[in-house]
Structure formats: structure tokens, C-alpha cells
Amino acid sequence: MLDTRFNGQLREQSTQSGRADLNQPKLEVREICKSYSNRGKELVVLEKINFQLDPREFVCLVGVSGCGKSTLLNIVAGLTTPSAGQVLVDGQAVTGRPGSDRGMVFQGYTLYPWLTVSQNIAFGLQLRKMSKAEQRERVAYYLNVVGLTQFAKAYPKQLSGGMKQRVAIARALANEPEVLLMDEPFGALDAQTKEQMQQFLLELWEQTHTTVLMITHDVEEAIFLSQRIYVMSSHPGRLQLEIPVNLPANRHLEIKLSSEFVEIKRQILHALRGE
Ligand SMILES: Nc1ncnc2c1ncn2[C@@H]1O[C@H](COP(=O)(O)OP(=O)(O)OP(=O)(O)O)[C@@H](O)[C@H]1O
């Protein structure tokens, strides 16, 4: 059984850097459009996507398969170039690949199999030429945060799926990103491990208050985790509906059975079915 309690002491600097200004959006997506040309025909995948995340918000994007969720998240991450529009973090336009401002966690287990858990977490820190002493301190801290201190020297093949995703989350958080981007991070897990990871992620977010943008096609996961949900429509991908999730901050899995939760689920499923 996964221990979902948060194990770490909060780092003094937290995951928000000195650039954070609570009055300005942490993330702004402005007029994003994306088209691909397919055998001479234009395929419009995203049309005029606009939204903002406040500092410390947890927001989910949900939508049917193929509506453009991954394309949108990859544009925010800087892995895909938009046809038009801009992405801003702390008011500054972002360009290029994920770096210290945007950390990314993918669905598949994207750990380096030839590196230990510690070395995987340290990977981005090494690239940034952080001193060895600081790397050790950060890695120890985030290993503790995700409850894997005793697996520091293990290799990915020795870990369960849930543990691998905790390492991937630790690796992203170790860079102390301004925004954590998650693409179906628990999509490959069995139902029980998935629910344990949802509780774990929520507790982690409550402690670190990292700004999170996550995509999922699991409606219950989106409601359980987020403060706001955007429902996307497809062909072309647009933001169809914005739903605030006014559930208590301190959530446990049983909340999925509450009437408030079921009502939000009904609204989202209704919007998705109206597609
Ligand atoms: N490189 C590409 N070239 C052409 N079309 C693409 C490319 N990448 C994505 N698409 C198309 O863009 C659309 C959106 O794809 P995307 O993967 O973003 O959807 P999604 O909502 O994340 O789907 P899923 O939930 O199944 O992962 C699809 O129709 C896909 O075929």
C-alpha cells in the first residue's frame, strides 16, 4: 500500500521562484491556434485557445480522444510550435523546450533505465550545472517528498508503475518549475494505484502549491484534483466550458461519492456527450 502522506519538510524557497507575483497570472495561453497540413488539406487542431492559471492553481483540461489536449499541452511545454498565439509564464513569453519554468510529466514511464532513481531525479540539475552539493540536497529532499528515499539507488526496472511515476514527478519538481505540466500521468496505472496516486498528488500539491496544468480523459480524476476544469470540444479543438470545482480543499477519495461531485461529473459528461 502506498503511503500517501507527504513526507518532506517544505523547502524554504518552495517551488515558486522569486519571480512569483500573486496578482498576475502564472500561466497565460493567448489565442493559440494549431493546424497541420495533411496531403495538401489543412487540419485545424486548435482554434483560438485562451485561458489563464493563477499562481498555485490546479487546473485540468478534459476532452474526448483526438480533441487536441496533448497538442495544447505540448505547445505550452514548448515541444510543439503553435501556428499562432503566445504562451506566457509570469508575463514573459516562453520559447523553446521545457526548462526551469515548465516541468513536464508524461503518461509513459519516461525514466532513463540505465540511471538510478537518484540519478534520474538529478538529471535536469546536472544539465543546469548545479553544484554537486546542491544536487545532492535537492535530490534527497524530493526523494523524501515522494516517499522513495530507500529506493535512491534502485533502477527503474525494480520499481512498480506508481513508484516510477513518483520518480518522474520528483524529477520534474526537482527543477522547481513555475508550472508543472502533466499529460495523463496516471493513464498507464491500474485503477487502485491510480486512485492512490491521485490522493498522493493532491497532498503534494497542497504542500508545495505548485501551479499545475494537467490533461486527462478521466473525468473523476479531473474533478478530484482540480480547482477548475476546462472541457474541450473537438474538430477543431476549442475550450467549450469552464467549470469551477468548489469542493473542500482537503479532499479524500470518498468525496467522489458526494452529491456535489456527482453533479459536476454530470455537467462534464453532458458537455462531452454533446460533442
Ligand atoms: N504531427 C501531427 N501531424 C498531423 N496531425 C497531427 C499531428 N499531431 C497530432 N495530430 C492530430 O491532431 C489531433 C489532436 O491530437 P492530440 O494527440 O492532441 O489529441 P488528444 O486529445 O491528446 O488525444 P488522446 O486523448 O487520444 O491522446 C488528432 O486528430 C491528431 O491526428
TrEMBL record:
Residues 1-21 are annotated as: Disordered. Residues 27-261 form the ABC transporter domain. InterPro entries: AAA+_ATPase (IPR003593), ABC_transporter-like_ATP-bd (IPR003439), ABC_transporter-like_CS (IPR017871), ABC_transporter_ATP-bind (IPR050166), P-loop_NTPase (IPR027417). The keyword ATP-binding applies. GO terms for molecular function: ABC-type quaternary ammonium compound transporting activity; ATP binding; ATP hydrolysis activity. Its EC number is 7.6.2.9. It is found in: Cell inner membrane. Keywords: ATP-binding, Nucleotide-binding, Transport. It is a peripheral membrane protein. Gene3D superfamilies: P-loop containing nucleotide triphosphate hydrolases. Residues 1-18 have a biased composition (Polar residues). Belongs to the ABC transporter superfamily. Nitrate/nitrite/cyanate uptake transporter (NitT) (TC 3.A.1.16) family. This is ABC-type quaternary amine transporter.
